[in-house]
């Protein structure tokens, strides 16, 4: 956790919106991830410290202003482990807050994320990041994605900064792709299992290949084709037709303005 904290502090700079997500192997239960000051200390701070220092100490109040509960919920009834205490210390030192059990469909829930008994996968964010959160929930367990962990699903809403067009950028060439359909996930697994020998051959290639970049790229390309073929066979094809592509490409041209549409 100390290494994560060092890396985190080296990257945040002057930003006020940042997030960490993943498996921290930390059971925190209902431990508080913020420090609420009592009235006596508040009075001392208000009279003897500058505004910047007060903003750091009272950062947790941004949750209240954003209608986020200070107290989070957790269905993990196990005892907090050592990683859990370290994670809480990390949060309190860096003004970070656990989103699980506080927002979205997981608000007042705190659904477990591993083996249906422990909560060890977290979205951890700064107080100002709550303002751009639109959705958050813990998906039901799916063995396609993990051995024991549930997916964390969330959406954010932020302003997009449009940069100058890169003329060297290569547009989508209309490659046929497949859209994931949960109802046919078993079919996808079945079709992928039919390629088991091909995948084993690729594993052997990995063991025997050199460190040359083109060798590795070739193996990855073959692996991508295996998954793509299984997906197309399971879900069918989806892609833009030529007319849609031409219109989209034309609309992306710098010279194409609203006057051209009139």
SSE blueprint and pairings:
Elements: H1 2-12, E1 19-23, H2 39-48, H3 51-57, H4 61-65, H5 82-94, E2 96-98, E3 121-126, E4 133-138, E5 152-156, H6 185-193, H7 196-208, H8 213-235, H9 242-251, H10 258-261
Antiparallel strand pairs: 1-3, 2-3, 4-5
Helix pairs in contact: 6-8, 7-8
Beta-strand content estimate? 5-15%
Spatial ordering of strands, largest sheet: 1-3-2
Number of domains: 2
End-to-end gap: 58 Å
Give the overall form.
elongated
What's the pLDDT, averaged over the residues?
82
Low-confidence stretches: 168-172
Structural class: mainly alpha
Brief rundown of the structure:
The chain is mainly alpha-helical and 262 residues long. The protein has 10 helices and 5 strands. Helix content is 40%, strand content 10%.
Question: Care to describe what's here?
Answer:
The strands form two sheets. This protein has a three-stranded antiparallel sheet with strand order 1-3-2, with helices on one face. The chain is mainly alpha-helical and 262 residues long. The radius of gyration is 24 Å and the shape is elongated. It has ten helices and five strands. The chain has two domains: 2-156, no CATH class; 182-251, no CATH class. The protein starts with a helix and ends with a helix. It has helices at 2-12, 39-48, 51-57, 61-65, 82-94, 185-193, 196-208, 213-235, 242-251, 258-261; strands at 19-23, 96-98, 121-126, 133-138, 152-156.
